[in-house]
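Note to self: user wants both folds in one dump. Writing first protein now.
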Amino acid sequence: MKQRSTSPRRALLVTGALLSILPLTIPRAPLLAQGPGLFDFFAARKDSPTDPLFAGLSITGFSGVWGFRASGALNFNSGSNSSSQNQQSQYHCNRYQCYYYGGNYSYDDYGLPIGVGGWTVDADLILAPFRGLPIAKSLLLGFSPYAFIGIGGIGVNPSNAPDSSHATWSYGVGVHHDLLGWLGLSAEARSRRSLHSDSVIAIGTSRNWEFRACLSISFGGGHPDAIETTATGVIMPVEAPELDHFETAESAARITARVLDRAEGLVETAYLSGGTNPNMGFDAAGFVQYVFAEEGVSLPRTAHAIAELGETISTRIGSLRPGDLLFFGNDGISIDHVAIYAGHDRIIHATASGGGVRYDVLGEGERGEWFTDHIVTARRIVAEGRARPNVGHDESRDEGELDPPDQAPRSRRSRGE
């Protein structure tokens, strides 16, 4: 009696055992991120030695938990060395489908050393609910289950019989395991049905299921410097050490409110060219730099350098928010003065023409009209998701280039009245 070969189901059980053991033998080196695409090299067969063994390739693209996969496989034989089994083929049919018993596939002799005895093609829609949940995958020891449904076709070329091919639809389940982030193993089971069949979805026996074992290679992932592995094996993003992100709009609003409170507390502090502290006095950039530094936001020393940071916004009054910075030029072009927008058309700044730190109202009186006419640009330094502006400015421009005093019409205080 001829000994039967090991069934694919038994092979998949062995593969599952290896999936559980291999993660324990791999060093805990930083892992590469799993990318949104997968190349799979797979072998597939039904749980019967009479069905051909297919070897194939597939490519999968993921967007979140959803993926689309295209795959194809072939069965190869020895061509001219093929021979037919003497065992007679037998079929048994019921109202839903036919079952094949006995016999082995063999193939026509085409005079070639390698022959093609069968083929499959499939296009599948995949749902992998835990793909975007590294914590859930960690709890499942790195396993990520998935389900799929698709359409395709299958063809076989048994000996002493015409070629058999037909269109199919299929569904199934599988599980994927990351070995090295970019390298993984998968195992899945597929139930394949003819498109012309009126049978309902049913689990059926193992004879109805096609089993597949895959070696997966991920592509399209992030750079390894952008991730780290925690003690639990969960891959987490690493922020660049020189950046400090404001996490929410609420935290940004709190910082803005504290900046305005500190600025309010410095009203009537004297103006001093080059001044950077309340004991001696402030110039325009020194005042802005001081109040923001008190909230941990580092700014350059001059107005034109500060203007290189943050987000450019419209200078229209309706576009401005409290805490935004307005930049002015004595000639209306070159930036040499900066003020903090305080809301309701008001600005607070250290001004030479105003005699120190004070409020002015844009468009109101000679001073307000002068500042309105000499606005150059506006920037938003504190905003949701924005990095603190302590990186990227050209510090070489800060040396020996202090801003000149503003030339707005002088206030009564500056005239000594």
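First done. Writing the second protein, which came from a different request thread.
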Amino acid sequence: MSAGESGGRRRAAGTRHGCQHLANVLVECAWAASRTRTRPGAQFHRLVRGFGGHRNARAKKKAAVAVAHTLILIIYCVLDRRLPHQELGEDFYARRQDPERYKDKLIGRLAGLGYKVSLEPAQAA
């Protein structure tokens, strides 16, 4: 069990102590990355939804810190491996999902709302 877990539950953990000036710069870079069509930008928007939505200022700040952590990992890997960064694209998280499982999840949600769902294959245009 790692720090931040208790009995299989993940507890909130703050950021680590480090260079506060670098942290500020990375968070500013994360805010800039949130406006791009890149993997960090997609990560920001995905995390904001999970932390409480785009109207929640705290959710945006938490997502920015998480993206800043991702950026420092990218920087470290580029410097360590001495290879250029390979951008994975804004659809990185969508490509990771299994379409069948996602379809089943959506059908289950509609069934939970009281709808009966039947699917037909789409006509090829």
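Dump finished. Worth passing along: The chain has one domain: 17-112.
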